Amino acid sequence: MEIKNYRNLIIFILVLIFIIKYSGAWAFDTQENVKQPQTDKYKANSQKTNEYHADLSKLAKFPIKPVRLIIPFATAGSNDVVARLLAQKLTETWRQQVVSDNRAGANGIIGTDMVAKAPADGYTLLMISTSFTMNPSLYKLPYDSLKDFSPISLIAEGPLVLSINPSFPANSIEQLILYAKNKPGSIQYASSGLGGIAHLTGILFEKTADISLIHIPYKSSGSGVIDVIGGQVPLIFSSVSPALTFIKSGKLRALGIATLNRSTLLPNVKTISESGMLGFESSMWWGVLGPRNLPQSLMQKINQSVRTSIESQDIQLRFTSLGMDAKVSTPEDLNRLITKDLRKWSNIISSSKIKMEVN
User: Fold this and answer.
1) Do 166 and 250 reside in the same domain of the chain?
2) CA angle at residue 253 from 251 to 255, to 5 degrees?
3) What is the band of 357 on the pLDDT scale with cuts at 50, 70, 90?
4) 3-class SS at 331?
5) What is the rounded CA–CA span in Å between residue 357 and residue 359?
6) Residue 237 and residue 166 share a domain
7) Does this model's pTM top 0.90?
8) Strand, coil or helix: what is 257?
9) Which residues span the domain enclosing 303?
């Protein structure tokens, strides 16, 4: 009996040791499995926090080296003038040089493509104008005008004006349209070149008024203005600047402004929209883009710096003297403007069957 009791006791002790041993191992293993992910999670969160603070530090210090502002056109044009004014003010704001870099060719495509392929670090920016939204419908492009860029801000807008030789028998937009309807296909208009904003504004005017005009392209607005004054061509669509002096002297007559708002330089000249063609709108504008995937925080910082620069009084006055209105925007508003104009000019160009070749 005693032997049996000892045997049972020994068995009980062995079972107890077994339970303690393996339940402990299980608990230990379970504890490790619970704690390990928590440790990994802590490390991951810590790494993200460090990266966040590093990004904030980089953003606060931006720019730490010169920034390139690519101008995809030659010197002395409107794009060049606007870009250099902005570059000068950004240099003052950032206390870091902003280099105006003219990369002309193929109606702006070469310089634009350079920025499309640049790193998204804020050190390569692009000055664009209205032609940016026309090129996709005129040429085969090596980039996507919406997907390959980050919008930053609008810079300025410039109205176009429809001017005529004073001897032309029309004193208003209404009279011009009536005259054109009575003599379809006989009235010529000048512009600064085939496929440019002035040319396409003329086409938009024809379609909206349901008239037919003959386009005469010139190498510049200035040369077209001279021929209108001389009587070789009766009318011209141009920016305000090259026509302003002649309008004030009476050598040209301004019939209408192509934007929805009147020009600050010609406040007594009605808009074309006011003159019976309700909603008619065509304008030149300039803006700044970066490469696609520009970090949102960096995009906002550059936007704020651009806003500070453009809203300065000296820039406002300089733009006004050039027939432009300084105007900044949010990145979202610039993106909406680009999208709207891409659609508008695509419809105009496709319906007019304009053919262009890259030079």
Assistant:
1) yes
2) 165
3) confident
4) helix
5) 6
6) yes
7) no
8) strand
9) 67-158+284-352
